[in-house]
């Protein structure tokens, strides 16, 4: 089975730096993103920025971000 990611619909995170790291496209629509890392790696900062951006983009509701603290 071959997946064609070029055809996959994406949703911008609302965080310009993250979207840039993801090739300027954002997260795959309907995906679940799991954020992990040690203390001080920016998990909480990412989560707060994502939550602050969400009201500006109703489409973010179809993507879930999970953080392990």
What can you see in these coordinates?
The chain is α+β, with helices and mostly antiparallel strands. It has a domain of 40 residues. It is 25% helix and 17% strand. The protein is globular.
Strand content: 15-25%
Helix content: 10-25%
Reading the helices and strands in chain order gives EHEEHE
Q: What's the tally of helices?
A: 2
Radius of gyration: 13 Å
Q: What is this structure, in a nutshell?
A:
The chain is α+β, with helices and mostly antiparallel strands and 69 residues long.
Helix-strand blueprint:
Elements: E1 10-11, H1 16-21, E2 27-28, E3 32-35, H2 43-53, E4 64-67
Parallel strand pairs: 3-4
Antiparallel strand pairs: 1-2
Considering the chains and any ligands shown, give keywords for the structure.
two-stranded parallel sheet, 69 residues, alpha+beta, 4 strands, globular, 2 helices, 17% strand, two-stranded antiparallel sheet
